[in-house]
Amino acid sequence: MKNDKSREEKQTQAALYALGALSQHEARAFENQVREGDEESQTELAAFEKVVEALGYSAPPVLPPAYLTDVLNTRLQRERQQPVAAIAPFSEKRAVAPAMSSPPRQTTTSTKVIEFKRKSPILTFLPWALAASLAVCSLYTFSAWRAAREETTALQSQVATVKTEADKFRTQATQETERVYELAQINQVLRAPDHRIVELAGQEIAPTASASVYWNVSTKQWVVAANLPPAPEGKTYQLWFVTPDAKISAGLLKTDGRGHGFSVVPVPPDVTNVAAAAITLEPAGGSPQPTSPIYTMGKVS
User: Fold this and answer.
1) Is this prediction's pTM over 0.85?
2) DSSP string, 188-200
3) 57 compared with 6, residue with greater pLDDT
C-alpha cells in the first residue's frame, strides 16, 4: 500500500508541475527529485508534459463575452486620448523655450510611448483564464486516465483469478480421469476368476504408508495402488517382487503431489514363487537392489 501511495503522489506532483500549479518550494523539490534520477518521476513528468502540450494545441478558440469587448473598446479609446492631452503642454513649452545648441531630448515622448503600451486588464486576465481552463482539462484528463488504469488493473486481477480457477479445475479433472482409469483396472482384475490381493502395510520408516496389489494370475499382471509420503526431489519409489532367494525389481512407481501412486506391472514368466511385495525409496531411475529401508511390505497369501 505504501508503494501505491508513493506512486500516486509522484503522478499528482508530475501533473501539477507540468501545469505550473506547484508552489516555488514544491516545484524545486520535485525538480531535485527528477535530477537525482527518480525514474518514476521522470517517466510521469514526460507523460504529463506531452498531455499539457497536446491540450494547448487541441483547445478550441473561445470568443470572450460581449461585456469584455465593450470594456476593452472603452479602455482603448481612453488610451488613445491620453497622449494628445499630455503632449500639448510640451508643444507650448517648445514655442517659448530659448534656442539651444542641440535638439531637445525626447524623454517626454518616450515616457508616453511606454505608458501607452501598458497591458490592458483584459489582456492580463485572458492568459490566466486560458491557463485555468487548461488546468481543469488536464486534471479531468488525469482523473479519467487514472480511473481507466484502475479499471484495467481490476480487469487483469479478474482474468488472473479466472485463470487460477481454470487451472484448478483442469487439475481436478485430470485427477478424476486418472482415478476412473485406476478403478477400471482394479475392477477388471477383481472380475477375473483367478486373482489375488496383497495388502502392503507401512513399515517403521513410514507407518502411515499403505498399498494394495491386485494380481491377475491368468494374465500375469499386477495392478498397484499406493498411498505414500510425497517423494523428495531426485528420489522415486520402486516396487519389488520378493522371493525366498532375492528381491527382483518390478519397476518404478510414480506418485503425484499427494503421494498417491498407481501402476500396471507385468509379472515376468521367469519370476516364480513370489512370497511378498515391497516398496522402497530409491534414487531417480531406480536401483538394481534396494538401497533404503522398506516403506511398505505385504506377504502373498
Assistant:
1) no
2) HHHTSSSEEEEEE
3) 6
